[in-house]
Each structure stands twice: as structure tokens, then as C-alpha cells.
């Protein structure tokens, strides 16, 4: 009984910690792994709005943006855009999330044989802030 309560408490606390994303898996590719380091979208006041990651697997790349809960709780009507960007500055698999959508995956990008980085943008009205992961070849 105590073990079950501890497991439940740990699971609940993991969900409540602001800014911590749970394990991510791109839609349709459970074997994909994060490549490179995580980038962070910094808002005008210096607060962290979101994490940006790049994943590779199943012959494609994905970008992923996770808006932190504490930032989202203080801001209304934001949009998230994400894409895999190649060296020629072309966005592949670009997706714009729904209003206030906190977790957004790009479409799969056929770019595993190219140098890429994940792009994440968080916008409030006309103003937006972006971050890019490190370049991976």
C-alpha cells in the first residue's frame, strides 16, 4: 500500500512541476530519439516560455516545442510554430499550433541526410520570440 501511494505521489508531482516536459515521442515513430541539446525560447522579460528539441528516427526529423506551464498560466492567446530548418533556411514540416496549444510537433521532415536544426517560435499577437537547437549533420 505504501509503495502504491509513493508511486502515485511521484507521478502527480512530476505532472505539477512547472517547465518539465514528460517523455516525448513524435507521432508515428516511437523509436525516434532526441538529437542535440534543448534550446529555450526566452520571452521579452527574460522568462523561459518554451523548450525546443529536435528528434530523428524512422528516416525523418521532427521539431518539438513544449510551452512551460508557469509561462502559459501568465499569458493568454499565444501561438506556437515549429519546423525543421535546413542550412538553406528552408522550414520543413512547419506546423502552427492551435491557440494556447502548449505542445506542438512538426510534420516529419525528409531531411536526415542534411544539416538541420529545430526551430520553435512563441507568439503573442504580432510579437514573437524564437529559439533554434544546435545544428546537427
Notable characteristics:
single chain, alpha+beta, Immunoglobulin-like, 4-stranded antiparallel sheet, 2 helices, 8 strands, 15% helix, disordered N terminus
Q: Tally the beta strands.
A: 8
State the low-pLDDT regions, or none. 1-21
What is the helix tally? 2
- Structural class by sheet pairing and helices: alpha+beta
Shape: globular
Give average pLDDT, whole number: 87
Instruction: Please name the CATH architecture.
Output: Sandwich
Query: Main β-sheet, in a few words?
Result: 4 strands, antiparallel
Roughly how many Å is the radius of gyration?
16 Å
- Strand neighbour order, sheet with most strands: 1-2-3-6
Please report which band the strand proportion falls in: under 5%, 5-15%, 15-25%, 25-35%, 35-45% or over 45%. Answer: 35-45%
Can you put this structure into words, describing what you see?
- With 137 residues, this protein is α+β, with helices and mostly antiparallel strands.
- The protein has one domain: Sandwich (Immunoglobulin-like).
- 15% of the residues lie in helices and 45% in strands.
- The chain contains two helices and eight strands.
- The chain has a four-stranded antiparallel β-sheet with strand order 1-2-3-6. Strands 5-4-7-8 form a four-stranded antiparallel β-sheet, with no helix packed on it.
- A hairpin with a 5-residue loop joins strand 1 and strand 2.
- The longest helix is centred in the N-terminal third of the chain and has 15 residues.
- The termini are far apart.
Amino acid at each position: 500500500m505504501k509503495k502504491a501511494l509513493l508511486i502515485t505521489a511521484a507521478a502527480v508531482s512530476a505532472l505539477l512541476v512547472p517547465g518539465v516536459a514528460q517523455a516525448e515521442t513524435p507521432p508515428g515513430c516511437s523509436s525516434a530519439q532526441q538529437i542535440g541539446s534543448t534550446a529555450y525560447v526566452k520571452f521579452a522579460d527574460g522568462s523561459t516560455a518554451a523548450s525546443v528539441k529536435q528528434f530523428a528516427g524512422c528516416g525523418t526529423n521532427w521539431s518539438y516545442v513544449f510551452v512551460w506551464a508557469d509561462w502559459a498560466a501568465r499569458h493568454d492567446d499565444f501561438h506556437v510554430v515549429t519546423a525543421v530548418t535546413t542550412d538553406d533556411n528552408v522550414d520543413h514540416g512547419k506546423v502552427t499550433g492551435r491557440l494556447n496549444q502548449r505542445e506542438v510537433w512538426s510534420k516529419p521532415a525528409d531531411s536526415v541526410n542534411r544539416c538541420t536544426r529545430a526551430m520553435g517560435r512563441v507568439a503573442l499577437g504580432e510579437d514573437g520570440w524564437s529559439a533554434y537547437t544546435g545544428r546537427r549533420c
